[in-house]
Structure formats: structure tokens, C-alpha cells
Amino acid sequence: MTSVPSALEDASAELQAWLVEKAYPLWWEAGADLEHGGYHDALDRSGRPVALPKRARVAARQAFCFSKAPELGWDGPWRRAMDHGLDFLERAHRRADGLYRARVGGSPEAGDEHAELYDQAFVLLAWAGAADRGVATGGRAQELLGRLPRSPLGGFRELEGRELLSNPNMHLFEDFLVWTEAGGEGPWSDLAKAQARLVTTRLVDPQSGAISEIYDDDCRPAADPALREVWPGHQFEWAWLLMRFDALTSAQAASTAAALKLIELAEHAGVDPARNVAVHSLDGYLKPREAMARLWAQTERLKANLQAAEATGDGRWWANAEKSVEGLSLYLEDSGLWRDRLGAGGEFVDEPSPASSLYHIVGAILELKRIVARRG
Q1: Looking at residue 104, what DSSP letter applies?
Q2: What is the C-alpha to C-alpha distance for residues 340 and 345, in angstroms, rounded to an integer?
Q3: In this predicted model, which residue has the larger pLDDT, 92 or 2?
Q4: Of 23, 26, 67, 235, which is least surrounded by CB within 10 A?
């Protein structure tokens, strides 16, 4: 099958309408803190801000999401919303050494100095989104990149430790691909190639075929598989990035072959068929550790299966994509809010909607829109 199933075409239109009519307006009008700057970290079930510290990743993610709003059809004040996040990153989160502190309190003056590699990755992504809208951020991006510590065997280690976490390295891979797509000057294409090599030659366990969350400075996971954490959502997300890398670089399809194995693994071991959702975590033996199902993992399942379907034309990936969009839709509410955690018994946890999820939702809707446009 080379064309998109009609169910996915319908889902694409419905999700875009929900995003443009409900989610984007809500997360700008209620999600932005127009008094103190930046974005609230969560909205309660009535759509009111929750008093929480502000995280750099939220300001960066919201800026990136609003940079994509014109492509998705929102005619609201997307540039003001994008700039609102970028300005707060510089004013409140940027440290004297050029790195970005992880969180600040209710006012910019209430923050601490702790910084994480994960947040630096999202600052780079926000700037890439702005660059795609004509803002000159390439110089700042390369300056920040130069401050990130490299691991001797590839990838990037933590800012305040020697371990290598796969999650921030995955998002740096995304950064490098987005910057390459934007045509920005710099080492982005070479860095993307290095991250692809890292995952296929170092991070994938040769026995289980899975990518763990934590590695030492020699790119080794915990020796005991029972102590490892394998997140199905991240298997999907790495797979999506590897296929995106192949499509962008016209590689030898080696990355796509590795990606398809990751998707098969995650679908087989990481999806609960009773709930039709990807669970949160497995151990190194690919046995369940935590059956809670987070929203973000459903978006990554959809993106990966869509890319696999487009790359191969195989109908089973289209079928998986249809199941994925059904699973994702369980979490989205008509108001523009969403649920975050679905318990093992099929009940959602009653809690505020985290602002950080908008990045995952926008990414999934954007991927679906693009593939429908190319294949519909």
C-alpha cells in the first residue's frame, strides 16, 4: 500500500482542527504568563495555570511549537508566542556561562544554577524553529553547541557528570536534523551522522535489540539487564529519527533497517493490546517495569509507524499507525487540554495537563499532515 488509509486522512483533518481551534488558543491565552514572562508549566482541569516552577524545556518547547503554527494553519499571534518563549529563555534561564538553567521560580530571580543537557537540546530546537521563520539564531546555536561536553566514544555526556543518557542525545539528534533541514550553516549534517552511528553501533544492545536510558562513559548500560530501563516510547522516537535521517541524507538505508527493528520490538514488547497504548518502561529483558502509559509515548508510536509506512509501503505499518492515532486520541480533550497518564486498569490519573506535552502533540500532528500531503 502506497497511499494513506482514509482513516488517517480523516484523523489528520480532525487533529489539525482540534489543534488550531482549541489547543493553540488555550495554550497561548492561558498557558503564557504575560505578567512575569515565559509559560506556565501546567494547566488544571479547568484550564487555569498551576503554580509551579518554570522549566527551560517548557519555554523552549512552546517557542518551537508556535514556530510551527503557520504550517498547521493557526492564524493567531504565533510570532509573538514564539518570541515570548525565546525572550524568557534569555532573560530568566541563561546563566553567565552561556548554559541554560533547568528551572526558575514564579519570577526569574527565584531560579537556581543547575543545568541539564536535556534542556540545552531544547534551546537548540527552539532556535532551529525560529531560524526556519527567518530569525538569525545560527551563531548562538553554534556557540551553545561548543559548550556541550562530548563523550569519548561518541555523543554527549551530562553537564555535571560522566554518564551518557540516551534521552538528551536523542533530542540532540533531532536538533541536528532540524538544523540540517533548515539549511543552517555549521556542522549539523556531520553531527547528525555521528548521532546515527552512535545509536546503531553503541546504544542498541546486541542481545535484546533495545536502547536503554542510561550508559556509562564507555557507552555501556547497567551490567544486569534487570536494572536497565527501556522505554518503548523512546524506541519509537529513535526509530522515527533514524528514518528521518535516511530520508534527509539519502543514506544506504542502514538506519531505516535498524529503525524497523526498534519499532517491531516496541510494538511487540511495549504495547498493551488491551488498552492499545505504549507502556512507560520495560527492563533489559523486555519485561514490564511500569504499565502506566504516558501521552508522549503514543505520539512517538504514531510518528514511527507513519515513517515506516512511508518508507516501505508495507500495509502493516499503516495499520499500526491507525491503531496509534486511536490510542493518542484517548488522551485529548475537546477543551484543548489533555490527559497525561493512563493507569494499568484503564483509568486516567486526575492531574493537571503538562505544558511540555504540546511539543509531542504538535510533532505527531505535523508528521501526519506531511505524510498525508505527500501520499494522500
Answers
A1: E
A2: 15
A3: 92
A4: 26
- Please state, in angstroms and rounded to a whole number, the distance separating the CA atoms of residues 305 and 243: 10
Q: pLDDT tens digits, residue range 247-281?
A: 988 765 779 999 999 999 999 999 999 999 999 99
- How far, in Å, are 104, 148, 163, 244 from residue 160 at the CA level? 19, 11, 9, 31
CA 82/CA 78 separation, integer angstroms: 6
Burial zone of 212 (CB within 10 Å; 0-12 exposed, 13-18 middle, 19+ buried): buried
* Span 272-298, pLDDT tens digits: 999 999 999 999 999 999 999 999 999
Tally of domains within the chain: 1
Which CATH number covers residue 178? 1.50.10.10
pLDDT for 58 equals 98
Task: Examine residue 351 and state whether it is found in any structural domain, yes or no.
Answer: yes
Question: How many Cβ atoms are within 10 Å of 245's Cβ, its own excluded?
Answer: 24
What's the domain range around 126? 6-375
> Which alpha helices (H) appear in the chain, and where do they start and end?
6-18, 24-29, 56-67, 69-72, 78-88, 117-131, 138-145, 166-181, 188-198, 232-249, 254-270, 295-312, 315-329, 357-375
Does 1 fall in a domain? no
**331 found inside a domain:** yes
CB 191 within 8 A of CB 169: no
17 in a structural domain: yes
pTM of the model: 0.96
Q: Provide the grid cell at 134.
A: 527567518
